[in-house]
């Protein structure tokens, strides 16, 4: 593997801007990011949190409003936005009417009869009534997410170059060389960087240029993606307002999502991969979704194919992949963009640590070891969600009496609720996937070994654990202050009141080595129970790196979790001498 940047590396600085200008891109940057969608921007934000500048190259000049493919950020992603200081900003920017931002609702149509409403879906209850998460899920359209992240990235020192595309790239032991071209003028520029990250989507130029193959299935099935305007739905709807409206009717199924006070989109599953859109009566489908006699204006119709494709490598030397460039899965469950956000956080702090001189090359290797298995699991679960959706629809449909669907009266309502319970049992895993969301368990060379047993993993159940590799258990320190808020930008060491001396010994040694380490005393009783070891070290991405006793060797622990066991840098050499 290509050696990391030399210890004490001084990162390049340049003015932050979001620009369409044809001139003046920096000649060299610490990190060059190809693609300024949500994942590339999230990476730019995390780097900026550490004071590391980045340049993002994006061929589009505007954020398209349609089609909207990603529309949900789960609680874990919102915890990342909280870390970046923009969780509230994102929620305030969301365009969906507030009443329609919570719950999963099962119904015959948007103005028809309801089978049932389920608030536990998608962890929308989240921080409202649970101490297990710092944030609840948020229904927010991808263009809005992009704009919020772009503003924050630029604020933290990133340059976003719009209207530029990658032409070619190369690398050696000293860094990467990329040639970029302005799309409208053909102007070309060569940019050097210490590292280059491909966040450039499913057809990633970076992945292809690096010769990285993919495993998995392509073209598994085809789904319709439809957009329309129909403000009358909100005024005529008889169902409980829902963020995700799962519509089941003898004439077909759909998953409908409100975008704003007049706009909607829907995913319609169950088509062959070679579907010809011209053979589909799209207007009839939308009419079924909104309900009889409800006017609408179709604004977009398209077909997208379902893929299970995972890059075989996430790193080649100084080149990395993140987001769709690294992994693709079905959108049923909303895992792909949320996984990309976790990619950005995981890789971002590791690149920053390496550039700032306190992270070793093993730390960069751990990115693939930790994130790729998560992508594989997500792809399997997402495809299973699609299968369950179709199977549940077909199974329950065979028991439905069409005459009862829209009928009045207690008996009809009771039967609809029974069908709703059966439908929810079949599709709940798609909407209530706490294991996938909160229980991502990392295994790598920079995670301390721990022989203690752990609860078997489940896609739908989360059990807080301070075992190394797990997401650090959350707790509220006060009504508005999360344990995560107290954690530093770098590592944090959590300790019980009687172990302050040992914790301060870790902090002193970290200071001598040059590793940022914030001490946090566990005075909250719930936090003290969840962190049952005297000392626990938590990483910048809020995953546990190590836990142990007060007599543990600080230097050995710190070198292990920063990837420097076999690559002692200048700070560690001075501290050990």
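Sequence proposed for the structure above (577 residues):
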């Amino acid at each position: 593997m290509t050696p990391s940047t030399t210890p004490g590396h001084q990162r390049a600085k340049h003015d932050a801007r979001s620009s369409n200008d044809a001139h003046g891109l920096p000649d060299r940057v610490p990190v060059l990011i190809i693609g300024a969608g949500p994942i590339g921007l999230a990476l730019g934000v995390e780097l900026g949190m550490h004071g590391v500048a980045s340049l993002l190259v994006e061929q589009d000049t505007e954020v398209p409003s349609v089609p909207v493919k990603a529309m949900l950020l789960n609680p874990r992603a919102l915890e990342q936005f909280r870390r970046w200081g923009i969780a509230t900003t994102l929620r305030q920017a969301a365009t969906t009417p507030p009443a329609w931002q919570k719950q999963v609702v099962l119904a015959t149509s948007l103005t028809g009869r309801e089978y049932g409403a389920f608030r536990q879906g998608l962890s929308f209850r989240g921080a409202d009534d649970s101490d297990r998460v710092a944030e609840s899920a948020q229904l927010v359209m991808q263009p809005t997410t992009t704009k919020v992240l772009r503003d924050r990235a630029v604020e933290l020192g990133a340059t976003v170059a719009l209207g530029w595309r990658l032409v070619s790239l190369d690398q050696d032991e000293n860094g990467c060389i990329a040639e970029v071209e302005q799309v409208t003028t053909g102007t070309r520029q060569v940019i050097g960087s210490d590292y280059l990250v491909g966040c450039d989507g499913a057809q990633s130029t970076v992945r292809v240029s690096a010769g990285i193959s993919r495993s998995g299935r392509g073209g598994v099935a085809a789904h319709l993606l439809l957009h329309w305007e129909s403000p009358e739905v909100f005024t005529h709807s008889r169902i409980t307002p829902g963020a995700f409206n799962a519509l089941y009717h003898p004439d077909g199924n759909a998953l409908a999502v409100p975008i704003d006070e007049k706009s909607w989109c829907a995913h319609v599953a169950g088509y062959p991969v070679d579907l010809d859109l011209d053979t589909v009566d799209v207007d009839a489908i939308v009419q079924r979704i909104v309900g009889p006699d409800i006017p609408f204006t179709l604004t977009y119709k398209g077909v997208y194919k379902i893929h299970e494709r995972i890059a075989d490598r996430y790193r080649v030397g100084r080149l990395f992949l993140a987001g769709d460039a690294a992994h693709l899965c079905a959108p049923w469950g909303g895992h792909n963009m949320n996984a990309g956000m976790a990619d950005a956080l995981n890789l971002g702090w590791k690149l920053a640590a390496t550039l700032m001189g306190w992270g070793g090359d093993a730390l960069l290797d751990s990115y693939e070891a930790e994130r790729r298995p998560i992508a594989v699991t997500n792809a399997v679960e997402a495809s299973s969600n699609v299968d369950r959706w179709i199977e549940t629809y077909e199974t329950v449909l065979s028991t439905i009496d069409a005459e009862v669907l829209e009928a009045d009266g207690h008996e009809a309502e009771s039967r609809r609720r029974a069908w709703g319970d059966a439908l929810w049992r079949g599709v709940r895993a798609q909407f209530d996937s706490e294991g996938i969301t909160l229980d991502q368990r990392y295994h790598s060379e920079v995670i301390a070994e721990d022989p203690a047993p752990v609860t078997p993993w489940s896609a739908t159940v989360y059990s807080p654990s301070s075992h190394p590799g797990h997401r650090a258990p959350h707790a509220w320190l006060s009504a508005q202050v999360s344990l995560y808020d107290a954690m530093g930008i770098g590592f944090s060491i959590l300790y019980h009141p009687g172990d302050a001396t040992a914790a301060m010994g870790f902090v002193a040694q970290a200071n001598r080595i040059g590793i940022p380490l914030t001490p946090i005393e566990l005075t909250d009783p719930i936090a003290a129970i969840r962190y049952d070891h005297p000392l626990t070290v938590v990483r910048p991405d809020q995953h546990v790196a190590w836990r142990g006793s007060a007599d543990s060797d600080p230097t050995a622990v710190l070198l292990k979790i920063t990837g420097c066991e076999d690559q002692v840098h200048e700070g560690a050499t001075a501290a050990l001498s």
